[in-house]
Structures are given as structure tokens and as C-alpha cells.
Amino acid sequence: MSQSRFLISHTRPSIRKGLLVAAAALLAVQISSFGHASAVSAATASATVSVDGVIQTGWTTATIKGATFLPAKSFAAAIGATVKWDQATKTTILTQGSRSVKLAANSNNAIVNGKSVALSAATQWKDGVLWVPAKVIGEQFGAKVTWDGATSTLTIAPRLHPFVSNGKQGYVNVFGEVAIPAKYDETNGFSEGLAIVTKYGNSGYINASGKSVIPVQYTQAYDFSDGLALVEKNGKAAYINARGETVLTPAYDEAFDFSGGLALVRTGDKFGYIDHSGKEVIPLQFEDAFYFSGGLAAVQIEGKYGYIDTTGKVVIPAVYQHAFDFSEGLGLVQAEGADGEGSFGYVNAKGELAIPASYAQGFVFSEGVAAVANEGVFSYVNRKGETVLSTKYADVGDFHDGLAYFEEDGKYGFINKKGDVAIKAQYDSVEPFDNGLARVINGTEAKLIDVQGKVVADAAAPAIEVPAPAEAQAAK
């Protein structure tokens, strides 16, 4: 039932990952934020800033000519870069690993790795602080920066990826440049600003600048989710916060990640949920249960699957042969079939079959579409159930970064949303794109490629046999 944290998974799986735990007292939860911005002029605008999924406190933004700005120090902290003032050239230098960006005040030019680059928005000097256009400078570091006007939220994703060099692992940016040197035995992707790294069999956490935030000490460690991470040390499991403080020691046979403010727990053959204080808010009563997504979680009651909300109320009756995570407002379900092999469809939050259960295979929604199959050939449907892309392939994946894998003649490549082959089928195995890069495997050799198909770095080869991509997805 447990899932290796080092098998890269770019969508939350429909299987759980957890730790067997020993009974102990429950402690209060304290969640730490990523960091703090320096004080700036009160004349600037206020907006929410999210870094790698964590809402920041005390950060200030400014809007100038439609672009969102951050103080250089705040921006650097968000992507894991350092800031240095060069007195001789009167410039500010932001450095992340082997990449440096030199910025002058009130200039729409930057020196990136020694080369002049034109910027679509100029830096601003205000009250003794250099302000940088977050999206424009973020692109120079390979970070993804987006602005949501509806919620006034600036979202920053550093986009660092594990790579391999001389038998050790570190992190590269989307250009393949070293951001954090390869000095670890194993690495994992970043989640909520922290990544699991392993040395000599034990694991700890580093931040995007490569600084050890929680020392290597755990025999098992899992990604941060909802501000907490599940770890094991000396045979005992616990939840820790981003400062490495133990905040919960669950008294259950097995505990799992937090999602939607609740963590799945199991004792014997019954599942329930606890909150961040350790309170059992949904009693152990389900035969099977999964993570919350979109405010709902799939559970099994008397052999059938339905959905509950965060209060434990059954909001979609348990009438399905199987149910999967909600994604983009719809949940993938498998209806009961007379032959035991039910068809797949999609329910909305009201429990209505928004897309009839008429497919032999189905995948969760991603980037506005879902892959479905009948008679062994896949197509993609939108949220109305309309076919928006037909393919000739018997094996495809979800869209991520605008690309989805496909299989042809035993090899894997990637198609775009028009169905055109963007990266030809040439790999034994592939993983979905995630934040600009994908891991591809031929034999025992693994590489990281960008969305153009260019190899940017060596990747860790799988330690165990990698399943065919379709088998690694839900909806079997």
C-alpha cells in the first residue's frame, strides 16, 4: 500500500502513501511560512503571493504598467537565489547556482550569464529598493510566474528538477543549468518550498537555495502537503512542520499525507480522517478511502464507492465500482458492469453524471481535457463530454505543459493539443511533463528533456522496473 517517494509522480495518485505508526500522544500543530519580505513603501499595492503552493505573509507587491513587481530580495528568496550589490557597476546580481542575472535600476536590459538580454518590462528603483518585474525576471531563471487577477494572487514556481552527475544527485533549472550541486544519494521534487534529499540512507529537507532546512535524520520521509510532512525516525512516525518540529504523533496503525486540511488514517481495516490538531474529525468507518481533492474524497461503503465532504457527509452516494480523485470540478468514476468490467464516466460535485459512463477507459481531467478510450483507441473530451481530439493511439497520458505522451510501435513520445507529434516516439518509457521537464528512459539510461525534446540533463534511472505509463495512471 505504501508508495516509494522516489518514483516520480506528477499527479496525485489514486493510491495512498503512508507509514505504519506506533501509538503516541497527539500534539498541537504549528505551521510555518516560507519567509518574509523586507519593508517597502506603503504606496505599493497589496496582493497575495504564493511560492510553490505556500501563501506568504508580510509580502508586498506593486503594479506598474500592468506588470506585477516584487522587491529584488523577496523575488530572490522565492526562487532560491542570492542577491549581491556590485558597487563598481552599480548593479544588483541575482545568482542561482550557475545562473546569474545582473540588473541595473530603471533598465529594461539584463546581463544573463554574461550576455545582454532585453526585458519586456524595466526594473524600478523606489525608496532605496530595487523592484523587479516578477514574471519577466522569473523567466530568466526558468521559474513559472503567473498572475490571477480574479484573486489578486501572484504565483511563483521555481521549477527545479532532480538530476544526476557522477553518481550523485542535485537539481537543475529548466535550462539544464545546475541550481543545486549534485551531492546527494537521492533527491525528490520540491513541494511547498522544500525537497527531500537522502544521504547514507537517511533523509532530510532542503529549500530552493540548497540550504539544509531540516537535517538528514529520517529513515523515511514524504513530501510536504498542507504544511506538514510525514516522517519516520527510530521506528516511530510523526508529522513535522517546515521548521522540522514534531507537531503530531498519530496513534493509528497507518497514517497518510494531509490533503484539504485532513489526513487519512487507518486502524485495522477501517479508515477515517484527522485534522491538523490530531482530532479525529471523520471517524474510522470506511472500508477504503483516499485523499481529498476539490473538497471531496472517494470512500468505500459496503463494497461500493462514493464521495464525502470534509465533514464526513456522504454527498455522492456510494454506487460505483470505483471512484477516483476530483480534478477540475469532475470526478472519474467506474460504473458497475454486468460483466464485472464497468464503464468510466465523470460526476460533478452534485453527484450528477456530467459525462455518461460510456468509456472502456478513462483518465482524470488535466489542462481542461481528459483521455478516454473505446475499442482500444484514445481520444480526449472536454468538460462537456465533447470530443476535442481524436487519436490513433492505444496508450496515451494526461496533458501537462501542453503535451501528453503516446505510444506507437512500442516506443513513447509526446503529442500537443492539436494531436501533432511534438516529440517523436523514441523512448522505452516516459513520465508526464512537470514544470517544464520530463524524464525519459531508454534501457537503463534516463534523461531530462524540455518541451522541445532537447536533453538538458541526466536523470536518475529507475531503481526498479518502471511500469508502462498507462499502467502507472489511474482508470484501469
Keywords:
476 residues, Copper Amine Oxidase, Chain A, domain 1, five-stranded antiparallel beta sheet, globular
| Cα shape | globular
Instruction: Identify the CATH class of the domain at 48-157.
Output: Alpha Beta
Whole-angstrom Rg: 23 Å
The CATH superfamily of the domain at 48-157 is known as Copper amine oxidase-like, N-terminal domain
Low-confidence stretches: 1-17, 21-43, 465-476
Distance between the termini: 17 Å
Describe the structure.
The structure is a single chain. By secondary structure, the chain is mainly beta. The chain has three helices and 48 strands. The strands form twelve sheets. Strands 1-26-27-28-29 form a five-stranded antiparallel β-sheet, with no helix packed on it. It has a five-stranded antiparallel β-sheet with strand order 6-7-8-9-10, covered by helices on one side. Strands 3-2-14-13 form a four-stranded mixed β-sheet, with helices on one face. The longest helix has 8 residues, at about 70-80. It is globular. The protein starts with 17 loop residues before the first strand and ends with a helix. About 45% of the residues are buried. This is Copper amine oxidase-like N-terminal domain-containing protein. Pfam families: Cu_amine_oxidN1 (PF07833), WG_beta_rep (PF14903). It comes from Cohnella herbarum. Keywords: Signal.
